[in-house]
Amino acid sequence: MPNIPSDTLTPPQPENATGYKPLPDRAAPGNTVGIIGWVRANLFNSVGNTILTLIALYFIYQAAAWFLDWGIINADLAGDSAEACTSSGACWVFIKARFPQFIYGFYPSDEVWRINIMFGLFAFCIIGLVVDSIPGKKWFAIFTLVIFPVLAYYLMLGGAFGLEKVGTHRWGGFSLTLILAMVGIVASLPIGIVLALGRRSEMPIVRSICITYIEFWRGVPLITVLFMASVMLPLFMTAGTDTDKLVRALIGITMFQSAYMAEVVRGGLQAIPKGQYEAAEALGLGYWKKTGLIILPQALKLMIPGIVNTFIALFKDTSLVLIIGLFDLLAIVQSAITDPNWPQVSVEGYLFVAFMFWICCFSMSQYSQRLERKFSTGHKTA
């Protein structure tokens, strides 16, 4: 009997239920995926978008060419006085010479190590909270919210543990901007949550108080709040009472920002389906357990973009403290560019301020997007 191959005796098996063998997978065309695909789909997908893209590219090219020539090729970097700025480009010598003042304000030069330690501790807290591979997030959070503010207070103000006391009138620059923003952010969030819960409360008196507070502070400009806190508030205090100007500004910023935060939190609470409330009540949970364990965690996840947007707005609004005599980063730079010893350095100064604000705000924005992706529980289609 002749040898017959075994594969001819067994009929081919179908690849699927219909009996048809699917075609082999093929890679997508190179011009539809990756960067090229994104460019084709978003920038050159129509005649109008193509024209607008080319116009935008032209302006970007002109701006980049100008900055390359003015800010890099013909810029002055060496030196420590205005006499070193001899070319037609940017005078970055001004930023280098005034950099300590821009960061530390009028803080004594022999005590700036205290601010550097505070910056180091703050960076340590941020890294511990942001990097997922670092364990002990709970302890980092406790240290950041409880211990770090106390350490920063004694480091900056002094007057204890053998540290020289440095009044708040000598604080300034980027360090003051950071203090105003961080205190406002940390203090306004819990107050805003309480106000939002009170506004949605079923108790008429509590609800009325919260609504009145929120609507009043949201209807007043921050400049007016700072002016009232610095100038008018001492008039209503008892004789001999002296409250620090920085403390009054922090109280005003916190009260103002907490009203906006309350509305952001209220929007997140209203976005929670009614079934979540009913399910929590069906489990026999009381109001505080239902709110703390079921409702509020879901609402906070939904509110991440709004919360961070409010934080970014607060960080930029800290420049308004100039009107009450506090010299933050922008105020320090504005006073420096009016120095007759440094003529025509306003562009360099404002670019430095814009860069510092952009770094901080962009970092907060990127971290918020990371949190959104991390806590996202939506079902995405392929």
Automatic annotation (TrEMBL):
Ordered alphabetically, the record's keywords are: Amino-acid transport, Cell membrane, Membrane, Transmembrane, Transmembrane helix, Transport
**How does this protein lie in the membrane?**
Multi-pass membrane protein
Annotated ranges, domain ABC transmembrane type-1 = 174-363
PROSITE patterns found in the cross-reference section: ABC_TM1 (PS50928)
Report biased composition (Polar residues) as residue ranges. 1-10
Q: Supply the source organism's classification.
A: Bacteria, Pseudomonadati, Pseudomonadota, Gammaproteobacteria, Oceanospirillales
Name the family.
Belongs to the binding-protein-dependent transport system permease family. HisMQ subfamily.
* Protein name as catalogued: Amino acid ABC transporter permease
Compartments where located: Cell inner membrane; Cell membrane
Q: Where are the transmembrane segments?
A: 50-68, 112-131, 138-156, 176-198, 219-237, 293-315, 320-337, 349-367
Question: Entry's Pfam families?
Answer: BPD_transp_1
User: Where are the residues of the annotated region Disordered?
Assistant: 1-25
